[in-house]
User: Fold this.
Amino acid sequence: MCGIIGYVGRKPALPILIDGLRRLEYRGYDSTGVALVQPSEVTVLKAAGRLSVLEGTLDYDAHPQTHGIGHTRWATHGAPTNVNAHPHADSSGKFAIIHNGIIENNRTLRTYLEQKGVIFTSETDTEVLVQLIAQLYEGDLEQAVRLALREVSGTYGMAVVCADEPDLIIAARKGSPLIVGVGQGEHILASDAAAILAHTTQVVYIGDNEIARITPDSLRITTLDAVPVAKETEEVEWTLDQIELAGYEHFMLKEIYEQPEALENCLRGRIDLKEGVIHLGGLADCARELTQAKRIIITACGTAWHAGLVGEYLFEELLRVPTETEYASEFRYRNPIIDEGTVVIAVSQSGETADTQAAIREAKQRGALVIGVVNVVGATIPRETDAGVYLHVGPEIGVASTKAFTGQVAVLALISCFLGRRKHLSPSAAMQFMKALSAIPDQIRTTLGHADTAEKVAREYASRENWLYLGRGYNYPVALEGALKLKEISYIHAEGLPAAEMKHGPLALITDGMPVVCIATTGSQYDKILSNISEVRARGGSVIAIATEGDKDIQDLADHVLYVPDTLEPLQPLLTVIPLQLIAYHAAVIRGCNVDKPRNLAKSVTVE
Ligand code: F6R
Assistant:
């Protein structure tokens, strides 16, 4: 979704802003722009389309300004045109603003300003905000922003500059992330740490309803009511290498291959095989309340929802607590029943997904204990939840979620064992589970070693427009995830199903050579899935089986077999998803799709 970058320092701002915008590209956007400030003049440069379009128009030597702001826009109000791109200037041209989020009362404010003679040039809610700030300006930009925000309802992460106060950026946040990187004689404002890392790892997180006054040498944060807020500078744990391609052709491929290390980082220090316990510091204070939970609701969107569904199976098996997984977008609007003893777990890579945020607010309002399972440290969801566990799998840049999925499943597995031990899980069963979980990173390495088979499968079937993915038990959510991966990056229609549902309708879809991916690892439902495979074959479908190493028999039933190492059934999703990620990746490459930036999709969905 939209991205924000700002720079106040001593170096020319333009290359820094463009580099920041490049690092924000992965979030998805359809226009870009920058505003450069110098005494008595603000220069706005913007263009619809990719960043390269804007770059093609730039003359770096003509812009020595050391202060400025930049934006990648994902259209919400108004089409993705030059005019609607950010920054937006007021009618005098002295002020320029960039803004993520939505000003809900923009129509009322627009009418009010029009009555005062303001002439608008764009259709955006953002222009309303900058025109309002300009109207309220009496020589103090911070005060004008404060007064304007009192009139505004909606969400914002915004930054504004003014030609009369050229060494200053005023930024404010409500529901849309903003971070300030603290450098030597410079500050870098961004909506995402990825845009700051090239300069510093020292950051200050701006909270909701806070205003930041940023100059090269000072950073002051206050509430909307002008009360100073003391802030600690924090260290971002991500490194620059993690957000660069490092020789890979795409971030998605890099992130698929990062999974062994990402999961090592996720599990590090959390599994104590010597003592036979799981350490989850983030849950220590509420462990008792969690253990007493009578019902668990996992809420999330997309891939995170699939991980949540694995969590549902895990919790019911290891805790014996009724658990349901709800789409966050449905949960909040269905008047959910939250009894005493209901715990809500929100799963999110970005920690910013608007629907998931709304779901946790609903759950909190109704009195639930809310836990976050999030990757991005300091994001909105971990700030709003009562407790939580971070994934620690590093930044995920590719729009298609890969390592975050395995990280989410691993964390839910940790939580289930952590709580299971306090309930029904015997020490020996917990030990077996922990050992199996600890072995997963190496087993992913082994699985990635068979990547060539996944590429071969993709090559053979990439031209097919319809695929099915079948799984049972713990592998049913993996079937959903495999189908989602394929459709979102290769635009192939794919459906994931519980294998037994085939005979209740979808079997009618099978035609000669239709690719059907069947997750058929050994376990309690192995024989059943073999019957499902036979049903598919009998109708002429091409079977691509994901099977356990050593299972030679399955070769007689399948057209292709992709092997994964043996593990406990509840942990199989951590391995069986890997070949599905690879098949989707290669299919998309073969079809010439933009793997990291699929059409119509954004990395972080911050609007409902
Ligand atoms: C799919 C994908 C999305 C996200 C979903 C939730 O590959 O990435 O389906 O999983 O938008 O995002 P987060 O996890 O950031 O809440």
Remarks:
- The pocket of fructose -6-phosphate is lined by residues 301-304, 348-350, 353, 356, 400-401, 484, 488, 604-605 (CB under 6 Å).
- The domain at 3-236 is CATH 3.60.20.10 (Glutamine Phosphoribosylpyrophosphate, subunit 1, domain 1).
- The chain has a mean pLDDT of 95.
- The two ends are 12 Å apart (CA to CA).
